[in-house]
Design goal:
Largest sheet: 7 strands, mixed
Distance between the termini: 23 Å
Low-confidence stretches: none
Strand order of the largest sheet: 7-6-5-8-9-10-11
Radius of gyration: 21 Å
Order of helices and strands: EHEEHEEHEHEHEHEHEEHEE
Shape: globular
Number of helices: 8
CATH architecture of the largest domain: 3-Layer(aba) Sandwich
Length: 278
């Protein structure tokens, strides 16, 4: 039986859980899992419910709207794979890890294609039978390059873009076209060491942990809502190069975890923060 997920957020008030589950009960639906959270700082309510039963999404959503405050945000979606286009430059570790997980069904994803501004990773993509599109940025304005990239993306109509070490900065116009749909991996435990050369920065500061951060992309560089993070310990014996090598292992794990959470509809974005139901 097909499963669906409803995600609701709104200002908190009494009886919200009862109202939501009551609508699902009235439709004869079976709740598989339910998670809720109230942000005490903003008095805002979040709830994720997975259910199965009769497929009547339009009426269910309308009944939820009638039962809840008018300001409620309601997302109702089927469980299943989401269409993804990956973008990468030269580093293979994150892209290769996602392709391997995809091949063995570990992600709720249908990876449509890889887009790159270098040819370096073509053989890796094609070894998994994934279309590879090379669009060089040389001698081209950022806007023109993004236009050509966008034409390829729109041909696949993906749900999400995944930046698997794509080492270019987007214009605000490009980001606006894919608001809350671009997932990036940053090779640092943000907000520390944003921007370029984070491992060199970490080495020079003598840090004792390094990490990686997966986040949604916004116009503010490396400041988008954080989805997942992790760290590993280092010490004074590690060179900047050794830190970078260790960091690559963290990066691919964090990106895979974040993407899985996003594709399974477990992430809310609220006030540049995320609420994540794992």
């Amino acid at each position: 039986m097909e499963q669906e997920v409803v995600l609701i957020d709104c200002p908190d008030e009494k009886g919200l859980v009862h109202k939501i589950t009551g609508v699902l009960y009235d439709h004869g639906l079976n709740i598989i899992s339910n998670q809720e959270f109230v942000d005490a700082a903003t008095d805002h309510f979040f709830m994720r419910t997975a259910f199965e039963g009769t497929d009547n999404s339009g009426q269910i959503k309308q009944d939820l709207r009638d039962a809840l405050p008018t300001s409620a945000n309601i997302r109702l979606t089927h469980k299943g794979n989401r269409k993804v286009v990956m973008m990468a430059t030269k580093e293979p570790h994150c892209m290769g890890d996602l392709l391997l997980r995809h091949k063995y069904g570990e992600l709720s994803a249908d990876i449509q294609a890889v887009i790159s501004n270098h040819e370096t990773l073509r053989s890796l993509a094609e070894s998994f039978n994934i279309p590879f599109h090379y669009i060089s940025h040389e001698g081209m304005s950022r806007e023109k390059h993004e236009q050509e990239v966008s034409e390829i993306i729109e041909g696949y109509a993906p749900d999400y873009l995944v930046l698997a070490k794509y080492m270019r900065i987007f214009t605000p116009e490009f980001i606006e076209n894919y608001t809350d749909r671009i997932v990036n991996i940053h090779h640092s435990f943000l907000p520390a060491f944003a921007g370029a050369s984070p491992y060199r920065q970490a080495f020079e500061r003598g840090v004792k942990i390094i990490g990686a951060t997966a986040h949604f992309v916004t116009e503010d560089l490396d400041e988008g809502p954080i989805i997942a993070q992790d760290t590993i310990p280092v010490n004074h014996t590690h060179t900047a190069g050794e830190m970078a090598q260790a960091g690559r292992d963290v990066e691919k794990v964090v990106l895979a975890k974040a993407l899985k959470l996003v594709l399974e509809e477990r992430v809310f974005i609220h006030n540049n923060r995320t609420i994540v139901f794992e």
